[in-house]
């Protein structure tokens, strides 16, 4: 199951900037425990899928998993040994742009120890540092 948008306004996009902290998705909204990003970077659709598989396999049909990021940015690449020029390369894969503070995954209906172990196994599949966070009641 590869994650990519069904359609986009433009096929290719520019690199963009990852400076600053996350402006949205910083709190646990669905589950009881979560994995929060401490670094900034691009997370590919394959890395997200690897994390999802790891967490769901560890729970073995217990609990629930929420994926809070979606790869909506196309990354293009030119083939090896191609001369410069002749336009932008074709889309190679899709990434999610992650800034510090963003909650990446949430889990629920499991014990704290199980959630911590599953999210630690999943964190090993990611190129950024993460931390384990618990739900706190927010005053609206």
Task: Explain briefly what this protein structure is.
By secondary structure, the chain is of the alpha+beta class. It has 2 helices and 7 strands; from the N terminus they run E-E-H-E-E-E-E-H-E. 19% of the residues lie in helices and 27% in strands.
Order of helices and strands: EEHEEEEHE
Radius of gyration: 17 Å
CATH level-4 homologous superfamily of the domain at 33-77 and 89-134: Ribosomal protein L16/L10
Q: Number of helix segments?
A: 2
Structural class: alpha+beta
Instruction: State the total count of DSSP E strands.
Output: 7
Binned strand content? 25-35%
Strand order of the largest sheet: 3-6-1-7
The first-level CATH class name of the domain at 33-77 and 89-134: Alpha Beta
Head-to-tail CA distance between termini: 37 Å
SSE map:
Blueprint: E1 33-37, E2 41-44, H1 45-59, E3 64-67, E4 73-77, E5 90-98, E6 103-108, H2 112-123, E7 130-134
Antiparallel strand pairs: 1-6, 1-7, 2-5, 3-6, 4-5
Features:
single chain, 140 residues, alpha+beta, Aldehyde Oxidoreductase, domain 3, four-stranded antiparallel β-sheet, three-stranded antiparallel β-sheet, 7 strands
Descriptive notes:
The structure is a single chain. The protein is of the alpha+beta class and 140 residues long. The chain has helices spanning 45-59, 112-123; strands spanning 33-37, 41-44, 64-67, 73-77, 90-98, 103-108, 130-134. The model has no long low-confidence stretch (mean pLDDT 95). The N and C termini lie far apart (37 Å). The chain has 2 helices and 7 strands; from the N terminus they run E-E-H-E-E-E-E-H-E. The protein is 19% helix and 27% strand. The protein has a 4-stranded antiparallel beta sheet with strand order 3-6-1-7, covered by helices on one side. It has a 3-stranded antiparallel beta sheet with strand order 2-5-4. Helix 1 (45-59) runs antiparallel to helix 2 (112-123). The chain has a domain at 33-77 and 89-134: Aldehyde Oxidoreductase, domain 3.
